């Protein structure tokens, strides 16, 4: 077992303890260790990439402030010098003193919470005269967790007697690690959003940059079905909204590093892949957010014809996206629902707004005591399936009910006519006036 695996095992054992009251939590600096891959691109004459090789790497984010719930007691810092492997991974020791890592807790607890972390490090090519190298790291937590992109600066200064990495030609520390500093990070809390048609949405995008860097440009773009378009841009205080109602707050941009985009009254045209791009005076990084617009179906059950065998129509209207599941069941009095097959479907219809509608038909029999039929619809916009039910009665029950109703109406009519005739033949009552005194 490698050192990083032991470190994670220790962390998981410690985190299994009882957490403290959130109100009592304080910040504590810990090392966050991530298993990564380093992308090495071979180059042909002319500078074009000829191959893409993935090499095992390790990213150690040094002393990241996280909320301490009293379960981090005994957690030790990462020691790179204890890596004893035939082919140790390329280890980057990254300082975060210049930026904030707002999603550090999710990165720290990912393995213990059953989440997977995808981490990829690649070269960040920058035209500069400074004696340094740059890398960009993209980290993604599974299960809808946060996504973080970090631009890291690595000095090339070689001290006397310093050991260089055999392939990267960068100086190594005494512990055999490449020392870097994170100078820009762009984060989104949720890389995928499901929103209802007609509602409003906030697309989260935050950033943090090193002192000395200036925010020069923020841009939101939408890509959908091969088409790309500008949604919103901010350039040194100048705002441009290409999508009606799109907005973000410049004050939040400058003060809190919040570039979240607000979109009101969503339509199906708002669905797609959004790119939040942050540009500073030296670096550029971005985050991608998938927006899925949904519309919940409406379900109505009706009887097409009353003669047996009757046909039930289950109308499902106004839903999006297209995928939907329709099931039928029947339930006899005192029994349990039983699935029913043999339903047919109408052709698919699409409204001007882009939502879909379809009808399902089922030929039914009432049975000797009547049967309740249910049409159930499952859709991605629904937390629970939506259903509609109706009862089909046998012919004798329908006839008996009709005879009883007709008899009742006939008796009421006779009673009403008798009352009318009695009032017409009875003498009118007269009032007697008596003189006073």
UniProtKB/TrEMBL annotation:
Name of the protein: Tapasin-related protein
Keywords from the UniProt entry: Cell membrane, Disulfide bond, Endoplasmic reticulum, Golgi apparatus, Immunity, Immunoglobulin domain, Membrane, Microsome, Repeat, Signal, Transmembrane, Transmembrane helix
Domain Ig-like residues, every copy: 166-290, 297-387
Family annotation (SMART domains): IG, IGc1
Any Pfam family the entry gives: V-set
PROSITE patterns: IG_LIKE (PS50835), IG_MHC (PS00290)
Residues making up the signal peptide according to the UniProt record: 1-20
GO cellular component, one term: endoplasmic reticulum membrane
Membrane topology per record: Single-pass type I membrane protein
UniProt-annotated location(s): Cell membrane; Endoplasmic reticulum membrane; Golgi apparatus membrane; Microsome membrane
One BP term from GO: negative regulation of antigen processing and presentation of peptide antigen via MHC class I
Main location (coarse class): membrane
Molecular function via GO: MHC class I protein complex binding
Residue ranges that the Swiss-Prot or TrEMBL entry lists as coiled coil: none
CDD domains, per the entry: IgC1_Tapasin_R (cd05771)
Organism, scientific name: Mustela putorius furo
Oligomeric form and interacting partners: Interacts with peptide-free HLA-A*02-B2M complexes or those loaded with low affinity peptides, likely facilitating peptide exchange onto higher affinity peptides. Interacts with MR1 in a ligand-independent way; this interaction may stabilize MR1 pool and facilitate ligand loading and dissociation.
Membrane-crossing residue ranges in chain numbering: 400-419
Keyword field contains Membrane: yes
SUPFAM superfamilies in alphabetical order: Immunoglobulin
């Amino acid at each position: 077992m490698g050192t990083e695996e032991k470190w994670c095992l220790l962390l998981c054992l410690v985190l299994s303890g009882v957490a403290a009251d959130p109100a009592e939590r304080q910040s504590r600096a810990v090392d966050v260790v991530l298993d990564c891959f380093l992308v090495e691109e071979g180059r042909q004459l002319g500078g074009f990439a000829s191959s893409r090789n993935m090499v095992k790497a390790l990213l150690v984010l040094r002393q990241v402030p996280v909320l301490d719930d009293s379960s981090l007691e005994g957690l030790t810092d990462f020691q790179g010098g204890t890596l004893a492997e035939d082919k140790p991974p390329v280890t980057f020791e990254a300082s975060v003193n210049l930026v904030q890592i707002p999603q550090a807790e999710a990165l720290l607890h990912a393995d213990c919470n059953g989440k997977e972390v995808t981490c990829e490090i690649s070269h960040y090519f920058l035209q500069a005269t400074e004696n340094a190298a740059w890398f960009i790291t993209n980290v993604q937590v599974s299960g809808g967790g946060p996504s973080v992109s970090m631009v890291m600066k690595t000095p090339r200064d070689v001290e006397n007697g310093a050991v260089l990495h055999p392939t990267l030609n960068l100086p190594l520390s005494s512990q055999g690690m490449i020392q870097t500093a994170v100078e820009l990070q762009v984060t989104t809390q949720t890389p995928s959003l499901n929103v209802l048609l007609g509602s409003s949405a906030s697309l989260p995008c935050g950033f943090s940059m090193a002192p000395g860097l200036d925010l020069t440009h923020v841009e939101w773009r939408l890509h959908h079905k091969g088409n790309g378009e500008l949604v919103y841009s901010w350039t040194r205080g100048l705002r441009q909204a290409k999508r009606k109602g799109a907005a973000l707050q410049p004050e939040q941009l400058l003060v809190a590093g919040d570039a979240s985009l607000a979109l009101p009254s969503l339509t199906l045209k708002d669905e797609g892949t959004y790119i939040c791009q942050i540009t500073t005076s030296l670096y550029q990084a971005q985050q991608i957010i998938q927006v899925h617009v949904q519309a919940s179906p409406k379900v109505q059950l009706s009887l097409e014809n009353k003669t047996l065998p009757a046909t039930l129509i289950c109308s499902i209207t106004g839903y999006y996206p297209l995928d939907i599941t329709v099931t039928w069941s029947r339930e006899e009095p005192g029994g349990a629902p039983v699935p029913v097959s043999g339903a047919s479907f109408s052709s698919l219809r699409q409204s001007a707004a882009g939502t879909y509608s379809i009808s399902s038909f089922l030929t039914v029999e009432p049975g000797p005591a009547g049967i309740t039929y249910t049409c159930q619809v499952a859709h991605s916009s629904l937390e629970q399936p939506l259903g509609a039910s109706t009862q089909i009665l046998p012919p004798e029950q329908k006839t008996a009910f009709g005879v009883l109703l007709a008899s009742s109406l006939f008796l009421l009519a006779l009673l009403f006519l008798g009352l009318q005739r009695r009032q017409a033949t009875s003498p009118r009552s007269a009032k007697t006036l008596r003189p006073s005194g």
